[in-house]
């Protein structure tokens, strides 16, 4: 999609698809400003969806968590990789088929509700293994999964996020656990369901019959790449995993349409949020950043230069203010 020329960002789209971890909350605590921003969208009657790779909660549990934080939400607005993976298995397998579940109880329940039989041992001869994040996942169940896959079971991963954001810093995510089996089996999963695959975004768009949706996320390699694959505009917020240095170095398939500090960006002017927008107050010339104003506006200018082929690896500040901005951004 081509970005609109002017107006509030939220006004330019008919559906806002939010990632959760690192965007709305970190673990079980709200990201600063997120509750007010999402509530404001609800109060304005705007369509909202939540698309999460985290397979440890069911849609109703996610909605309850959001409501407990003060965010108006219903289970119908939530799409999880656990539900999508279970549905994919149900579409591919015979009713009652045995599936070895690696992950939280939420994933096991999703599998059972679709008429499949969850098991926890390779001795049960499962025809598929589904792997999602679970805090209690350990060597025993991973060993059973390895045996089942080696015996010919289909292997589906809910996602391959290497880390999960938390108030204490990034923690191992499902991708790290998938890497254990990848190393042991010397092969990739047969299918990955969650972002950056476009499945969750496509389902959200279908549910709301949206003509112009936007994805809001904190990860370049899942949220933003998923949006690019789905042909959707995207807003990267700097409240979670991906940071300015990651953004500057992002390959074409992981570049967002817009960048903002946090969800307050949804109510800012489109023309100030887009990468490469004019009038940012900043410029990159001869290896130096010059200008004044908002550090994130400087980041957009730096990204535009880098993505256009300018070498910004040794960028310095032309003024004390510019130097301070570079330090603030970690560049």
Automatic annotation (TrEMBL):
PANTHER family: 4-NITROPHENYLPHOSPHATASE-RELATED, D-GLYCEROL 3-PHOSPHATE PHOSPHATASE. It comes from Asanoa siamensis. This is Acid sugar phosphatase. It comes from the Bacteria. Gene3D superfamilies: HAD superfamily/HAD-like. InterPro entries: HAD-like_sf, HAD-SF_hydro_IIA, HAD_sf.
């Amino acid at each position: 999609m081509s970005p609109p020329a002017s107006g509030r960002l939220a006004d330019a789209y008919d559906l806002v698809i939010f990632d959760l971890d690192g965007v709305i909350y970190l673990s079980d605590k709200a990201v600063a400003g997120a509750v007010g921003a999402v509530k404001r969208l609800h109060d304005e009657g705007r369509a909202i969806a939540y698309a999460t790779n985290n397979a440890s909660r069911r849609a109703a549990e996610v909605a309850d968590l959001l409501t407990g934080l003060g965010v108006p939400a219903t289970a119908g607005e939530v799409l999880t990789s656990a539900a999508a993976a279970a549905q994919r298995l149900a579409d591919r397998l015979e009713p009652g088929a045995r599936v070895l579940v690696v992950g939280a109880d939420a994933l096991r329940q999703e599998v059972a509700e679709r008429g499949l039989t969850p098991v926890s041992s390779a001795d049960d001869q499962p025809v598929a293994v589904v792997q999602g994040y679970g805090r209690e996942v350990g060597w025993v169940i991973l060993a059973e999964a390895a045996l089942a896959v080696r015996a010919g079971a289909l292997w589906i991963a809910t996602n391959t996020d290497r880390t999960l954001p938390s108030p204490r810093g990034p923690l191992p995510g499902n991708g790290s656990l998938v890497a254990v089996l990848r190393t042991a089996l010397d092969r990739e999963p047969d299918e990955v369901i969650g972002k950056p695959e476009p499945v969750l975004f496509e389902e959200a768009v279908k549910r709301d019959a949206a003509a112009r949706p936007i994805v809001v996320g904190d990860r370049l390699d899942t949220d933003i790449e998923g949006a690019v694959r789905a042909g959707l505009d995207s807003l990267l917020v700097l409240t979670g995993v991906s940071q300015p240095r990651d953004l500057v170095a992002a390959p074409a398939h992981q570049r967002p349409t817009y960048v903002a500090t946090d969800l307050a960006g949804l109510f800012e002017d489109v023309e100030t949020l887009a990468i490469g927008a004019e009038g940012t107050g900043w410029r990159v010339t001869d290896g130096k950043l010059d200008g004044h104003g908002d550090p994130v506006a400087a980041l957009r200018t730096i990204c535009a230069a880098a993505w256009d082929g300018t070498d910004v690896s040794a960028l310095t500040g032309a003024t004390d203010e510019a130097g301070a901005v570079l330090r603030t951004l970690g560049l």
